[in-house]
Write a structure and sequence with these properties.
alpha/beta; 6-stranded mixed β-sheet; Nucleotidyltransferase, domain 5; 318 residues; 11 strands; single chain
């Protein structure tokens, strides 16, 4: 058993997982945390990470580092994704992380990010299906990880990743580009959808997406859509993990979020405060993916790149 600490620093949030990982089988969570720090605030327009965003991230990272040490993590890895990958002043962010965590972050390429997401998402699909009493999802899997700045697509099966593509459409990036009103009018939504469809055309050109038998959706936008589609009175990760959400429910939830005011979105019992401003764009990405690729349902996973980082730390050959 190896105790590890995994940190995922994305465009919108920074997350921590401290877990015990056996040589084989499922890992055991000891601590999970998620804080919205908006590291990518304004980066799409300026090309730079804002000083206040770096400082917000530093404060939370210092807490994470202390908790990982207190819990006795033998290994720690921080993966930084889209926002820091794109930024002109990436060196300032890396210097902050080195001073705070004692090591450089791994600034993952889009393909590396996709592979970690695939590993984390697919490792527990069979167990989740058994817990829900449903049929086990069948490969090949198309894993879609909707982040703040980018969305990763991975096609794979039991043998691992067959193809991967990262595109620069994410819930924060699309909101800052297009969804400026409260709620956004149809022309803003249509502009965002056009961006998504252009990105999906790139994905379809690079990957045989039609070969997928199961769409697996990851990250906060997808899990929030699932919670709303399931009608949960409060956020329940066990109910969400492994759930199957039909495309009709995704369309309904997406339309509802995009026509709701910020006040109405914030009042939803499953809504994390940090997702209120960007959930409409995240839901739109999921809906357009399912429509564009003619997919009937999405299998939702609570396990994503964070679990992938932890598993790879403990099992380097995974």
């Amino acid at each position: 058993m190896t105790r590890v600490a995994a940190i995922d620093c994305g465009t919108n949030s920074i997350r921590l997982l401290v877990a015990d990982v056996p040589a084989d089988g499922a890992h055991t969570d000891l601590l999970r945390r998620m804080e919205v720090v908006r590291l990518g605030e304004g980066v799409d327009a300026t090309g730079r990470l804002a000083p206040q965003a770096i400082e917000r991230t530093r404060r939370v990272l210092a807490e994470y580092a202390a908790q990982a040490r207190e819990l006795g993590a033998e290994r720690i890895r921080m993966v930084a994704t889209s926002a820091s990958r794109d930024a002109e002043n990436r060196h300032e962010f890396e210097a902050m992380v080195t001073a705070t965590l004692g090591q450089l972050p791994d600034v993952a390429t889009g393909v590396e990010e996709a592979g970690l997401s695939y590993l984390g998402a697919t490792a527990s699909l069979a167990a989740a299906a058994r817990a829900h009493g449903t049929a086990e999802p069948q490969p090949p899997y198309l894993v879609v990880d909707i982040g703040g700045g980018s969305t990763e697509f991975v096609l794979g099966d039991a043998g691992g990743v067959r193809a991967a593509r990262s595109v620069d459409v994410g819930c924060v990036r699309l909101t800052e580009r297009h969804l400026h009103s409260d709620p956004p009018p149809p022309d803003e939504v249509q502009a965002a959808e056009a961006d998504i469809r252009a990105a999906l055309a790139q994905v379809a050109a690079d990957m045989p997406v039609a070969e997928a038998r199961t769409l697996v959706g990851l990250a906060g936008s997808v899990t929030t859509v699932a919670a709303l589609a399931l009608g949960l009175p409060a956020y329940d990760a066990d109910a969400i993990h492994g759930s199957r959400i039909p495309v009709g429910a995704v369309r309904s939830v997406s339309a509802g979020l995009l026509t709701a005011t910020r006040e109405r979105r914030a009042a939803l019992p499953v809504m994390h405060p940090g997702r209120v401003d960007v959930i409409g764009a995240g839901a739109l990405i999921l809906r357009v993916v399912m429509d564009a690729f003619d997919i009937d349902e999405v299998v939702v996973s609570e396990h994503d790149i964070l679990a992938g980082i932890a598993l790879r730390l403990a099992r380097p050959g995974a």
